[in-house]
Amino acid sequence: MGKFIPNAPKPLFEKPPFFEDIKASDVPGRRTEKKVSVLQGEVVEILGKLGAVGVYFLDGTFEGEPRRYGFTVNFTVQTIPARIDVAALPLRSDTNKDRALAQALFLLRNRLEAQYYAAAYEPGVIPLLPYLIGAGGQTVNEAFLESQVLPMLKDGA
């Protein structure tokens, strides 16, 4: 029998649900009443705890259909630029734009908070590593998804 070759990882949500189609029990943050600016402040605070500096948000839309509003969260970690792309669930109507963006930030805040606490019991973990930007302008995550190879795992090493 030959060497086992695992399938490449794929994104969990090829086609995310519309914001209007989910219930509060489906996706956390669906009913958050916090303002987008408050949630952005909470994200900045947690990123600071993780060692990020110079955090700023750029808002816009992501390519593709259906259109998705979101942010790029830009920051630096020990002189290395980094970026987290945050897309809200797609919308049927822009009347829910603010709430969809708040939900996306709510989920990001929770994930970053979990990464902060995980660092306490995962020795050597670098929580912001997937978001660091390399010489080609891609994050570590983007480079991996495009190439399906991490240098240290290349050729079965």
Question: Could you characterize the architecture of this molecule?
Answer:
- With 157 residues, the chain is an alpha+beta fold.
- It has one domain (30-150).
- 30% of the residues lie in helices and 18% in strands.
- A three-stranded antiparallel beta sheet has the order 1-2-3, covered by helices on one side.
- Helix 1 packs parallel to helix 2 (97-121).
- The model has no long low-confidence stretch (mean pLDDT 86).
Keywords:
157 residues, 3 helices, 3 strands, three-stranded antiparallel β-sheet
Mean pLDDT: 86
Principal-axis shape: globular
Structural class: alpha+beta
Q: Give Rg in angstroms.
A: 17 Å
Strand order of the largest sheet: 1-2-3
Low-confidence stretches: none
Describe the main β-sheet briefly: 3 strands, antiparallel
Classify the helix fraction into a percent range: 25-40%
Instruction: Report strand %.
Output: 15-25%
Query: How many E strands?
Result: 3
Q: Alpha-carbon distance between the termini?
A: 20 Å
> What's the number of domains?
1
SSE arrangement, N to C: HEEEHH
Count of individual helical segments: 3
